[in-house]
Amino acid sequence: MNCLFNKKLILGFLIFYVQIVNVSNIACYRCRSLTYAFCGDEFDPERTAISVCNLGEVCAKLYSKQDTYVMRGCFTRGTCISHPMLDECDVCDGNLCNGERPTFRSPFLTNVINLLISYVITNHLY
Fold this sequence. Notes:
The chain has three helices and five strands; from the N terminus they run αββββαβα. The protein is of the alpha+beta class. α1 (2-22) runs antiparallel to α3.
């Protein structure tokens, strides 16, 4: 019984460690359509710069009033709310997720699922 408890404890710590290591800065496409035409409707990821965001920042694709301007890059989550000149703002928190199509992959959701799986595994080992 004690050996089983130790195995569960070790497995739990390993899975928890993997989750903590998984938390890191993300990379986003960075460009402005006023400077680079390939940043707008005809987005070209091969020609677009990539930036590593500061911890706590997310990727975003911002659209200005009258659809005359697109900007991609790292921003704080509140950027979409606080910027009065935006028509639309797509925010995401995965690597290079502010490309052509919005993605809905969330590291937070992935971590929650992984924690649930680790809970089930550690509590059902015999």
